[in-house]
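Okay, any thoughts on this one?
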Amino acid sequence: MCFCFRKTCLRGVISNQQDWEEPHGFKRGWQEILIIDISISTAMDSKNATAAADQLFDNRVSALIMMTVGGLGLMVNLHVILALRRLKTFGYAFGRICMSHTVANFGNAFVFSCYVAPISLFYPEFHKHYIGVRAGQVLILFWNASVLSHLLTAVNRCVVMFFPLKVEHIFTKRVTDVTLAVLWIFSICQVIPYFSTECLFDYHIETFTFLFGSSTCSVVIGTYADYYFSILMICAIASLDFLTFIKIHTMNKETKMTTEMKKRRRREIKFFFQALCQGLAFMTELISFFYINFQFKNKWMVFVFTTFAWITVHMLDGLIVIAFNKEIRTFRVITGNSTLGGSSTGDGKTMTSGNTKVAITVVKN
């Protein structure tokens, strides 16, 4: 016997029983059931349509936020990249390392603002396509390169403070270039497993965030190659920064220092606190992504503590470099010049471009 309350089901029963006659009042009851069924279906369809419209609107809002913040990150980090290429106040080693993590910041901002956001805005379904899923893979690459660059920055600052007379022999041009090359190659190797469809780190339009897949490969990669690796890097950076801070505190007790030594100490301390602020920013983002966001069920709160925090930290990383260095703040992209002389010790050089004279101090570190 058929118990479903749909017209097609009742028709099927009636068609198979041609000689069956309707009992008294059955037709009216059947019509009432049909009306109720249609009303429920209409209400459900209307509710689903409203939910879909709300989701589409929210998706567009999140895409515009990503595009805006990512665009700001592009401009900030591009300014730092252009300044680092022209200015010599950072020295070769520290300047190259800063360039490395700034390029990684630029890459993250570019993927979010020029790839993830436009797809979310115009063709959300493409996030499930194999090419669309590559966004997460590229973001992991730039994230790893950025974190490793910050680790190298912490090592550089620690060596400068503990071995100021040997730093030129430790961080030579060759050592610096080879180390950075290995850093980027390692970052690329880490994301090779993501080429497999079994290892996913894709964008979910329902929560506006990137999530690892549920497969064994995704869980292993996400847990060990991403989470524990990031935790290990942040702990290493924090430990090196702590040692450097202790050394700075010890140096402050030294009274016999020449003017040049004091200038160099102030400069190295400034670079240390720059690196410290950048490390704290990345540590905060890591805690936000892997812990704080799980305390919320609201998709907008999840978005704020994951995707938004991810984009923002790479923009802040560039802003910190600008905030700690006047020569970068006053750098003019159009003229390619700075109106300030370098504050570092070393060989002073003067560059002239048009009517603007720029004093640049070269420091080997």
Q: What stands out?
A: Residues 1-20, 336-365 have pLDDT under 50 and may be disordered.
